[in-house]
Design brief:
The complex is a heterotrimer of chains A (463), B (309) and C (373). Chain A is of the alpha/beta class and 463 residues long. Chain A is built from 17 helices and 23 strands. In chain A, the strands form seven sheets. In chain A, strands 13, 16, 19, 20, 21, 22 and 23 form a seven-stranded mixed β-sheet that branches. In chain A, strands 12-11-14-15 form a four-stranded antiparallel β-sheet, with no helix packed on it. By secondary structure, chain B is mainly α. Chain B has one domain: ABC transporter involved in vitamin B12 uptake, BtuC, CATH 1.10.3470. Chain B is built from twelve helices and two strands; from the N terminus they run ααααββαααααααα. A two-stranded antiparallel sheet of chain B has the order 1-2. In chain C, helix 4 packs parallel to helix 8. The radius of gyration of chain C is 22 Å and the shape is globular. Classes of the chains: A alpha/beta (463), B mainly alpha (309), C mainly alpha (373). Chains in contact: A-B, A-C, B-C. At the A-C interface, helix 10, helix 11 and strand 18 of A face helix 9, helix 10 and helix 16 of C.
Chain lengths: 463, 309, 373
């Protein structure tokens, strides 16, 4: 099943797995109509759902997580030994390598996903729903998952594989359902379609043209941001890099390899040793406020946590970070009219909807929130911009708009460091890139060396 | 010396049950993910109900009704926090204020301003020959609640760690969404835990008015509910830990009362107020040392929204 | 204006509901509706002044005496309510106003009794010391929160009982106990010097004193700070989105320290006003738990300084009237029951929003993001 973000894929699957109740319509399994009153019913009817965000209890063990809800007992007590045996048996049967006694919080992302699948199979799932299962995996891990999926299907299981990565769906599925704005737009056989055709079905009309071409542009200028031997002793180890004025430098990597921490160090949110020079001034250890004053912009990864204050109005959020300066303030006082006017003009030029500066920003859609964040950060005209996961959770139109704005800002001579877990995004935007693995950066790769397979191997630590 | 120790043990065993029940109640609610700072109010309701009912029926039955009253009062907390997703601390504090003023109102309109009439205390069981042995005789002559407290703590430990329902409670307190997807009824389980928490707190209150004393006094439980919350935190949200902390605090109180009565001169050196403040101070110190590694359940204080999209 | 009314509606309805429920409870418990009506009339007249009697007799005393009683209580409720509200503005739940107030009251009692100063500045110095003591005590919770990650709800509960026990069961009964005069043994600390008493505003037997105007001025100042000043904006941003505030370059820890110190100072000030305005010594037991009441006042006032002022005045009036209710045999804690129930109803914000807007309240942004998974 493919569809844009917000097309209704997860909601539909949550109905199938009994988490939500449908307002209308019918669900049939093996020729029988079913009515689920809760996830328990769906599980009993053989539906197993692997959620995009794992539904595991971190402090519990693999075995405890897997048997939760249908625990083996002996004389009324939980039989943990039996649980370990049963889960071990399930793992063996389907060929998963997992230690049933390990705590889930100690496992890698890939292993946690396996726990999720084992959890479903252990409950006798005949229908397996995988919601965006490859979003957090490396290309290699994703390949492995595709192989597992194929073998489960060969084994007689029904698998619903949800993704917005078209090539992946084409390689794993027999039939493809396209969802658009909560409706089924098409159903096609994988052997009879192409990625381009699917993309067109997904977004409708001719919005499908994928990545805008790079176009000609001026060569990069002097180094604007230079990191040397940056090390926090925990997640980031001896990282050195440069970003020049007028270029976008990408950092690719699998989640949890130190990219988040590196971005925090660069933006003053995390202490580290080494050297960080912003326009030739040493700034390592400076506070976020000082860095902003020196011309650093920051589009943080977690929009709702770090970029916006949800209960505050759009105009207050547009002032955030610059709220002490005109036109947002006069001396110690807030300049209400100046702030309102500036906010209104930003909403206009960035096409943020609705155009109401007094609206709570939490009420805006994710795409409009992100536009507001970018409007704020770029409006300050930063010489260096650190952008982390700028398009997470946005639909295709919004993604394209964000990418265009970033390129335009680069073309105006800014240095942009792009950190993203989405390899496609890094490849599409970057002029150069580094791969981060285990807190260390690879050698830099120029655009002509961008090779998806090779980068994928580097993301797993191969050189 | 032996006599003193004996007296201390005896008075610890008298004082501890109320605190232990209430602390276990707090653990039950919080392990399932609902903050309970309303223990104080729930105890007050239980203490009053038990004392009032004991006037017209056998005391053990009244104790059960005290539990029921605590549970009923906690049900308000459950509705507010679980169904209506109110702030759990606000709800708890509101219940404390309602219990404080509401029970004062009831006390006054039923019995007069300061206490309820005295009732038949819960029966105390001697240990026959054991009651003659020095030191061991401190164990004799307590109400059944003293022993129930110890048994309940153990049983609770067993239930939480070794039974399916215990595993589910832990899962619901750590990550309700995960529990919900495997068919655990998060809402129902949380309701049960919060209401059970109120029953335990009510039992703690009833212990005060039917075992420790023989009447309801106007200021009951006089901060004991907050001390129970301290015991829960001190015991790192585990039943046995909370039991140990509550017993330790009770021992501290026994020492303070013992010193006051047998060695009045000591209170010049170590004032009563210092001893009374000690449990809270120790809890604060432990929390400070633990820092961010405290063992509070991950989903504590976060309401669960089954239909949220 | 309409928006203000709409925002205040849940609180107003909660209070109305609490008043109604308590009325029914009172009527039922005495099986006498007239008594309940009388009691409510006493509660109002006892608080806002006995207007019927005034029109009959023309004596101002029947108005000013109740004013003194209600404003002196309202001043305390307002200060502790503001204390809680300020802590909320930076995202902290200060349950410790009780402890901070106790510490402030003690300092005021000591400065009032044992430091000789001219009449004009003595009360001010006393209040300042009370505020500083409260600020220092409140800061402990902030430091533990920021440095060690100790949740402020737990730490302030502990700090309350530490303060109350150390002060009421040790200092006030021991080292600081009043010097007995002849054979009379006095509970509490020494009486404060006449120079330290907060000036009375009216001479004719009313206890209305400077505490209330001070508290109202502070409420106005806090309103201006939170809504008009950069610093207040930063404080609110820290409260509503600490990580976003940090990323935006706001010194989060400093704002937390400042707000919590201010919160403690306000609670301490309440203790100072209590001692210098009405008690004139630290009594054996501080009595009414104004610090806990502050939580109710702040939340019923929706943590808005002006709303807090209105709610403090309202409940100050009810409480003053509550003492008059005693004449009818209703315990004086009855208004506190009304206040507790009102808080309970305010706590059910979800239901109010649902009822008032006709649709389900939107979940908070954080949780909706998590749940969208």
């Amino acid at each position: 099943m493919v569809g844009e973000n917000g097309a209704g894929k997860s909601t539909l699957m949550n109905v199938l797995s009994g988490l939500y109740r449908p307002d209308a319509g019918e669900v049939w399994i093996d020729g029988t109509q079913v009515h689920f009153r809760g996830p328990g019913d769906a599980i009993r009817r053989g539906i197993g759902m692997v959620h995009q965000h794992f539904m595991l209890v971190p402090p519990l063990t693999v075995a405890e997580n897997v048997v939760l809800g249908r625990e083996p007992t002996r004389r009324g007590l939980l039989d943990l030994e039996a649980a370990v045996d049963q889960v071990g048996e399930t793992c063996r049967r389907f060929g998963f390598k997992l230690d049933p006694r390990a705590r889930v919080e100690d496992l890698s992302v890939g292993s946690q996903q396996k726990v999720e699948i084992v959890k479903a199979l252990h409950r006798g799932a005949q229908v397996l729903i995988l919601d965006e299962p490859t979003a957090v995996l490396t290309p290699q891990e994703a390949d492995e998952l595709v192989a597992v999926t194929r073998s489960l299907a060969a084994d007689g299981h029904t698998v619903v594989f949800i993704s917005h990565k078209l090539r992946e769906v084409l390689s794993v599925a027999e039939r493809i359902v396209v969802l658009r704005r909560g409706r089924k737009a098409a159903e096609v056989r994988a052997s009879e379609t192409t990625a381009e055709a699917l993309a067109e079905l997904m977004v409708g009309e001719s919005n499908a043209a994928k990545v805008a071409s790079q176009g000609a542009r001026a060569p990069a200028g002097p180094v604007a941001l230079r990191g040397e031997a940056i090390d926090d002793g925990v997640a980031v180890h001896g990282v050195s890099f440069t970003v020049r004025a007028g270029e976008i430098v990408g950092i690719a990597g699998v989640d949890g390899n130190g990219q988040r921490e590196l971005a925090e160090i660069l933006t003053g949110l995390r202490p580290a040793s080494g050297s960080l020079r912003l326009m030739d001034t040493e700034v390592l250890g400076a506070s976020p406020g000082e860095l902003r004053a020196r011309g650093l912009g920051h589009v943080p990864e977690d929009r709702l946590l770090r970029a916006i204050v949800g209960p505050m109005s759009v105009e207050e959020n547009l002032a955030l970070g610059r709220h002490g300066r005109p036109p947002f303030a006069r001396g110690p006082f807030i300049d209400f009219s100046g702030r309102r006017a500036h906010a209104a003009s930003l909403l206009e030029s960035w096409d943020v909807r609705p155009r109401d500066p007094s609206q709570r920003i939490a009420a805006l859609s994710g795409g409009n929130q992100q536009k507001a964040v970018l409007a704020r950060e770029l409006d300050a005209d930063p010489k260096v911009l650190v952008v982390v996961q700028p398009t997470r959770g946005l639909d295709i139109a919004a993604v394209r708009s964000v990418h265009e704005r970033l390129r335009a800002h680069r073309d105006r001579g800014a240095a942009i460091l792009l950190v993203s877990l989405d390899l496609d995004e890094v490849l599409a935007l970057s002029d150069r890139l580094y791969v981060i693995f285990g807190g260390r950066l690879s050698v830099e790769l120029a655009r002509e060396d961008f090779d998806e397979r090779r980068i994928g191997r580097m993301m797993l630590g191969a050189t | 010396m032996l006599e003193l120790l004996e007296a201390l043990v005896w008075s610890t065993l008298e004082f501890a049950p109320a605190l232990i029940f209430a602390a276990l109640g707090a653990v039950l609610s919080e392990r399932s993910g609902t903050v309970n700072v309303g223990v104080e109010g729930m105890m007050r309701v239980g203490a009053f109900a038990a004392a009032a009912f004991a006037l017209v029926m056998p005391t053990p039955l009244a104790v059960l009704l005290g539990m029921a009253a605590g549970a009923l009062f906690a049900a308000i907390h459950a509705v507010l926090c679980i169904s209506w997703r109110s702030d759990q601390v606000i709800s708890g504090m509101a219940l404390n204020l309602v219990a404080l003023a509401g029970i004062t109102f009831l006390l006054e309109s039923m019995f007069g301003p300061s206490t309820s009439p005295s009732i038949a205390q819960l029966g105390r069981s001697g240990f026959g020959p054991l009651a003659q042995v020095p030191l061991l005789r401190a164990l004799s002559g307590h109400t059944a609640l003293t022993w129930l407290a110890a048994v309940l703590a153990l049983a609770f430990h067993l239930v939480l760690g070794r039974t399916p329902v215990g595993l589910r409670i832990r899962a619901v307190g750590e990550k309700p969404s995960a529990a919900a997807t495997v068919g655990v009824d998060v809402i129902r389980l949380r309701y049960l835990c919060v209401i059970g928490s109120g029953a335990l707190a009510g039992l703690g209150g009833a212990a005060l008015s039917t075992a420790t004393l023989d009447r309801f006094e106007h200021n009951m439980p006089a901060g004991l509910g907050f001390m129970a919350v301290a015991a829960m935190v001190f015991g790192r949200w585990s039943p046995l830990g909370a039991f140990g902390a509550a017993a330790f605090f009770a021992f501290g109180r026994a020492v303070q009362i013992g010193l006051e009565s047998s060695f009045p001169s000591v209170s010049d050196v170590v004032p009563k107020g210092v001893l009374l403040a000690l449990p809270y101070f120790l809890t604060l110190v432990v929390l400070t040392l633990q820092g961010k590694k405290s063992r509070a359940p991950a989903a504590l204080g976060t309401p669960w929204e089954p239909e949220a999209r | 204006m309409k928006r203000v009314f709409h925002g205040a509606l849940p609180s107003l309805l909660s209070i109305a509901l609490a008043l109604a429920i308590c009325f029914v409870a009172l009527a039922l418990s005495r099986s006498d509706v007239h008594l309940a009506t009388d009691a409510y009339a006493q509660m109002i007249f006892g608080g806002v002044g006995d207007f019927p009697s005034f029109t009959e007799s023309g004596r101002w005393g029947v108005l000013t005496r109740p004013w003194g009683e209600s404003t002196s209580r309202a001043a305390l409720l307002l200060l502790t309510g503001l204390s809680v509200a300020v802590a909320f503005s930076v995202g902290l739940f200060n349950i410790g106003a009780q402890g901070q107030m106790t510490v402030g009251a003690l300092l005021a009692a000591v400065v009032g009794a044992h430091v000789s100063l001219p009449a004009g500045i003595h009360p001010l110095v006393g209040l300042l010391c009370a505020a500083l003591a409260g600020a220092a005590y409140g800061s402990i919770a902030a430091v533990l929160k920021v440095r060690r990650g100790v949740h402020e709800v737990i730490s302030t509960i502990m700090l309350n009982w530490i303060a109350v026990n150390l002060i009421e069961n040790w200092l006030v009964t021991g080292p600081l106990r009043a010097h007995s005069e002849g054979t009379v043994s006095i509970a509490g600390t020494d009486q404060i010097l006449p120079t330290a008493e907060l000036p009375r505003l009216l001479s004719d037997g009313s206890r209305i004193h400077l505490g209330f105007p001070i508290a109202v001025l502070i409420a106005l100042a806090l309103w201006a700070w939170l809504s008009r000043l950069r610093h207040g904006f930063e404080t609110r941003a820290v409260g509503l989105g600490p990580e976003a505030a940090r990323t935006a370059g706001i010194p989060v820890e400093r704002r937390i320290y400042q707000a919590m110190a201010l919160s403690g100072a306000l609670a301490g000030l309440a203790g100072g006003v209590l001692v210098l305005g009405t008690e004139f010594r630290f009594p054996a037991v501080l009595g009414a738990p104004y610090g806990f009441d502050g939580i109710a006042i702040a939340l019923i006032g929706q943590n808005h300084p002006i709303g807090v002022a209105v709610s403090a005045l309202f409940f100050g009036i009810l409480r003053a009237g509550g003492t008059r209710m005693q004449l009818l045999g209703v315990h004086k804690s009855f208004p506190e029951l009304i206040q507790g129930l009102a808080l309970l109803f305010v706590a059910a914000r979800y239901v109010w929003r649902k009822l008032l807007s006709g649709r389900a309240a939107r979940p908070s942004p954080r949780s909706s993001e998590v749940q969208r998974a």
